[in-house]
């Protein structure tokens, strides 16, 4: 199988207690069965603690009981007691792999880093499209030719979507509109129909507050994130997203498209990932603009990284996004295009 890595992948190293956030914070830590079997054989105080603090969660997964949102093995020096006591090779699979992810497409496997890790996000914010496009010596379109009809079609659609999103001749909101329009046509073909022109004439912009309302109704792990989201929500109709932010958001889109677009092989809905990008743009871009008004603004990396942790990495929140796209007309392609255009034309 062809293994595809972005150029920066091999340079990533966890920065442990120098990390501004941590994967040992806010998340349940899954314990896979092989690791748990080993933990059952560990003697002494660490073994007792490992057994005492491993429980079954409401999804039937074995996890460590969190301690006020912290992994119970993350010590006061912000280092891992399991790593120190048993070695890296005995971390659970989740801990050993994060933020590395791989997506298996049968003929080839794409490897990525997750934006929810600050150090990985720093690498990705410096990346270019070419960094993701080392397809083992062939181009993405050659990869499409080597794939079956359906998969080849999706690969070409992904390539075209990225070209639209990264075309700096257009302001980013227009690129998002073009990408929605293009993928609405792709979706019609995937559904077995013919591409149909959109009915854009006369579509009213619903403003953008409803996107914040939806995010404020999500499961939120961090109080500071909720506060910043509320602040941005209050100002969302007044603030403009800066072009400077757009440059950084391009890197987030690049990551997001590589991570999710081909997911539509299993559930062919390419529009979900584009609509999620539009929502992420409005929320994080407005948060960035709102923070510029503050004395000590959070870095852009932290806004995008935290969005990834709070929304992208939450199964519940992603499901809520997708089901709202299905049920609420304000998230139709036409309505989102009207909302994006009105931001430029106001
Ligand atoms: S979030 Fe990334 S840098 Fe931070 S502790 Fe986890 S793997 Fe290391």
Please describe what this structure looks like:
The protein is mostly helical and 346 residues long. It has two domains: 24-97, no CATH class; 174-345, no CATH class. It is built from 16 helices and five strands. It has helices at residues 33-40, 44-52, 81-86, 93-97, 118-125, 129-132, 140-146, 149-165, 172-190, 209-216, 223-235, 243-260, 270-291, 300-312, 315-327, 333-345, and strands at 2-4, 54-56, 62-64, 100-104, 108-113. It has a three-stranded mixed sheet. It has a two-stranded antiparallel ribbon with strand order 2-3. Helix 9 (172-190) runs antiparallel to helix 13. The chain is globular. The model has no long low-confidence stretch (mean pLDDT 91). Bound molecules: iron/sulfur cluster. Residues 14-16, 19, 21-23, 98-99, 117-119 line the site of iron/sulfur cluster.
Our estimate of the beta-strand percent is 5-15%
What can be said about the biggest beta sheet? 3 strands, mixed
Query: What bound compounds does this protein have?
Result: iron/sulfur cluster
Spatial order of the strands in the main sheet? 1-5-4
Oligomeric status? single chain
Choose one word for the global shape.
globular
The number of distinct β-strands equals 5
Helical residue percent band: 40-55%
Q: DSSP helix count?
A: 16
What is the CA-atom radius of gyration, in angstroms? Answer: 21 Å
What would the average pLDDT be, to the nearest integer?
A: 91
- Structural class category: mainly alpha
Straight-line distance between termini: 50 Å
Low-pLDDT sequence parts: none
> What count of structural domains?
2
The H-and-E topology, N to C, reads as EHHEEHHEEHHHHHHHHHHHH
């Amino acid at each position: 199988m062809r293994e595809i890595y972005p150029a920066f992948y091999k340079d990533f190293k966890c920065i442990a207690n120098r990390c501004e956030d941590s994967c040992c914070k806010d998340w349940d830590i899954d314990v896979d069965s092989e690791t748990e079997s080993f933990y059952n054989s560990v003697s002494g105080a660490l073994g007792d603690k490992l057994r005492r603090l491993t429980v079954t969660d409401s999804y039937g997964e074995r996890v460590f009981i969190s301690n006020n949102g912290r992994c119970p093995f993350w010590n006061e020096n912000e280092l891992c007691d399991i790593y120190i006591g048993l070695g890296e090779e005995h971390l659970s699979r989740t801990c050993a792999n994060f933020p590395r992810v791989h997506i298996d497409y049968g003929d080839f496997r794409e490897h990525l880093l997750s934006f929810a890790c600050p150090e990985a996000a720093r690498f990705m914010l410096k990346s270019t499209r070419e960094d993701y496009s080392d397809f083992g010596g062939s181009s993405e379109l050659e990869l499409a030719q080597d794939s079956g009809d359906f998969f080849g079609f999706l690969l070409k659609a992904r390539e075209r979507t990225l070209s639209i999103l990264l075309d700096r001749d257009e302001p980013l909101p227009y690129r998002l509109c073009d990408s929605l329009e293009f993928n609405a046509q792709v979706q019609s073909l995937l559904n077995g129909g013919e591409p149909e022109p959109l009915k854009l004439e006369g579509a009213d912009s619903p403003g953008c507050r409803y996107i914040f309302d939806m995010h404020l109704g999500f499961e939120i792990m961090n109080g500071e994130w909720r506060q910043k989201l509320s602040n941005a929500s209050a100002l969302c109709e007044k603030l403009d997203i800066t072009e400077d932010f757009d440059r950084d958001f391009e890197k987030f889109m690049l990551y997001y498209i590589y991570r999710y677009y081909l997911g539509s092989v299993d559930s062919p809905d390419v529009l979900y990932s584009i609509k999620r990008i539009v929502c992420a743009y409005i929320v994080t871009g407005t948060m960035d603009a709102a923070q510029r008004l503050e004395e000590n603004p959070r870095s852009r990396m932290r806004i995008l990284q935290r969005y990834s942790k709070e929304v992208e990495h939450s199964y519940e929140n992603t499901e809520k996004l997708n089901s709202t796209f299905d049920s609420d007309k304000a998230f139709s392609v036409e309505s989102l295009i009207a909302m994006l255009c009105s931001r430029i034309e106001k």
